[in-house]
Design brief:
By secondary structure, the protein is mainly alpha-helical. The mean pLDDT is about 95. It has one domain. It starts with 6 loop residues before the first helix and ends with a helix. About 45% of the residues lie in helices and about 5% in strands. α1 runs parallel beside α6. It is globular. The chain has a two-stranded antiparallel sheet. Bound molecules: zinc ion. The site of zinc ion has 8 residues, from β2 and α2.
Length: about 140
């Protein structure tokens, strides 16, 4: 299902993409995208930089179709190499720990209310972070 994006998503994507000039998987500089580790549909982590990596269009597609949640909760399921499984890629290549990912997973599932009321503040916060990085 396509999730509607707003001005905060666009600003957040720009902020995240400032962190990397190439794809974090294979180092290609083409068509870079802000890729959410846990879906953008979860508002508690939607604008959390810990929940975003920079991938090219191809790797983003690969990532979104190669994540097995069982890996997060059961160490015996972590039998994949970084090229076969999205979460293993985050751990093996990008330095995430399984504990961090599990924590982020639970954070993403927390109930979130009142985005509309917070929308402007979130936008301001993203803008401030962007300006700091531009300095
Ligand atoms: Zn890539």
């Amino acid at each position: 299902m396509k999730i509607k994006i707003d001005c905060n998503d666009i600003a957040f994507s720009k902020l995240v993409r400032m962190n990397h000039t190439v794809c974090q998987r294979y180092g290609k500089p083409l068509k870079l995208q802000c890729c959410h580790i846990f879906s953008r549909k979860y508002y508690t982590t939607r604008f959390d930089e810990d929940n975003a990596v920079v991938l090219c269009w191809n790797c983003h597609n690969w990532f979104d179709t190669h994540k097995m949640s069982a890996c997060l909760f059961d160490a015996s399921k972590r039998v994949f190499t970084q090229d076969e499984e999205g979460y293993a890629f985050l751990v093996d290549w990008l330095g995430y720990t399984w504990d961090q990912l599990e924590e982020l997973y639970h954070k993403s599932r927390q109930i979130y209310k009142g985005y509309k009321a917070k929308k402007k503040d979130i936008g301001r916060e993203i803008k401030e972070k962007t300006l700091l990085k531009e300095e």
